[in-house]
Design brief:
This protein is mainly alpha-helical. The chain contains nine helices and two strands.
Length: 289
């Protein structure tokens, strides 16, 4: 039986997506196993706060993403309505994961700015506008996009085809927001550098600037994806990578700060020991769990 060029292209894209799904699931499981002991200590020993709840959501929502993604790619989905529902669930989990991850970077920036009310209001307002716009664009794209399956034997799954504009605009908004966080953090870095005797590299490390830089880089790559690739399967790879990696970066950053906070020595010129665990209970420059 001969198949059309469109069917062969769809089958190839579904194969790519299956490989991507397998690699992302393996990557997430590996990271979880590697950090399990450290994470278990945190969950057992830290106090229950709003930030801890945020951590649990940010850390475990990607498991729902993995399960949904596996079902989308490895189960027969001839029913396009069912597939669209699954894609909507996947998008919803992805948005929740991204929001929680960005909240950690917002809280970290808030702590670096000595719990400045103006800074937190500005960041949360911008984050809210960014996420609302992100959701509006993503789900309005579902109306105009179509679900792709294939009749080629041995190829299962389905995916949503979207235009390059529908893909890169949400990540462009995220890029602008992350650029604002990086700018605020760098301002704080230079302020700290001017009043301390430490090296610039040490201060950058203490301010977790490299966590921010990774998130900014991923958003930039996703914005440029439509220029670099024509196959929407590659869009899925880059989009999924950003969701998973941001979740890992934000939760790893919080774990790192929490463990440092257990052995913190108060130094008003050293902002590395700012813990986010007690942000809801006190407005202090240095807090420990």
């Amino acid at each position: 039986m001969e198949y059309s060029a469109d069917e062969i292209t769809a089958a190839r894209s579904l194969q790519y997506l299956a490989y991507i799904c397998t690699s992302m699931a393996t990557f997430w499981a590996y990271d979880y196993v590697c950090s399990f002991h450290e994470e278990w200590n945190f969950l057992c020993r830290s106090r229950w706060t709003e930030v801890k709840v945020l951590y649990i959501i940010a850390r475990y929502i990607p498991f729902l993403l993995v399960i949904t993604d596996i079902y989308l790619n490895f189960s027969p989905n001839e029913n396009t309505k069912k597939c669209k529902i699954l894609v909507n669930i996947y998008l919803s989990c992805g948005v929740i994961s991204l929001t929680c991850s960005e909240c950690f970077f917002v809280l970290r920036t808030y702590a670096l700015w000595n719990s400045n009310r103006i800074v937190i209001v500005a960041m949360l307002s911008t984050l809210f506008a960014t996420i609302v716009s992100f959701i509006s664009i993503c789900f309005s794209a579902m109306v105009t996009s179509h679900i792709t399956t294939t009749a080629v034997p041995g190829i299962t799954g389905c995916y949503r085809s979207s235009t390059s504009v529908q893909f890169f605009v949400p990540f462009l908004l995220l890029l602008v927001f992350q650029l604002g966080l990086v700018t605020l953090t760098l301002i704080r870095v230079f302020q700290t550098w001017r009043i301390s005797s430490g090296s610039m590299h040490a201060i950058l490390v203490k301010h977790n600037i490299f966590y921010y830089a990774c998130g900014l880089f991923l958003s930039a790559v996703n914005v440029l994806a439509p220029v670099m690739f024509s196959d929407s399967a590659y869009y899925a790879l880059l989009g999924e990578s950003q969701v998973y990696i941001l979740a890992i970066l934000s939760t790893r950053m919080h774990l790192h700060l929490w463990h440092i906070g257990q052995h913190a020595v108060y130094d008003p010129e050293d902002l590395v020991y700012i813990s986010m665990s007690d942000m809801s209970s006190a407005d202090r420059t240095v807090t420990t769990v």
